[in-house]
Design brief:
mainly alpha; two-stranded antiparallel sheet; 5 helices; about 65% helix
């Protein structure tokens, strides 16, 4: 192609079309870049919202757990009577071996100092006064009280 050759309008049209296509591609790339930036911003916003929601759910869960615990404690406290409290107090004094013996339904020996606790547990079911030397004297001395499965099953 020489400069002296006549201008072909098809070549000029092709050049103009190529320039327009170039600018259209640059414009499209700019729009895509803008959408990518917006998507990143929305993703960060969604991530922040997700973390806030996770914290809210966690706090709600903890609050519900504490509320349920308090309600269970209130129900349990209303359920317990003096006899149940006495049983709990009595078993707190037992050794591991004594607890195992109760589980295995064997006879156990309870120290006589727990006479009054035993009498509140077995009120109306067990006549501890009939057990010789079971009632502690003024010095607190007495024989151990022997209990068997029959006593616990009343």
């Amino acid at each position: 192609m020489n400069l002296s050759d006549p201008v072909k309008w098809t070549d000029v049209g092709l050049l103009v079309t190529a320039i327009f296509a170039f600018f259209a591609a640059v414009g499209a790339a700019y729009l895509v870049y803008g959408q990518i930036i917006e998507a990143k911003r929305l993703l960060k916003l969604n991530n922040d919202q997700l973390l806030a929601d996770k914290m809210a759910v966690s706090e709600d869960h903890e609050r519900s757990r504490r509320e349920l615990s308090i309600n269970l404690c209130l129900v349990w406290a209303n359920f317990l009577d003096q006899r149940m409290r006495s049983v709990a107090s009595l078993f707190e004094t037992f050794s591991d071996h004594m607890c195992y013996d109760v589980k295995e339904e064997r006879e156990i020996a309870v120290a006589s100092r727990y006479y009054y606790l035993l009498s509140s547990v077995f009120t109306g079911h067990l006549e501890l006064k009939a057990i010789p030397n079971a009632i502690p004297d003024a010095a607190g001395a007495a024989d151990d009280i022997k209990l068997s499965v029959r006593a616990f099953s009343v």
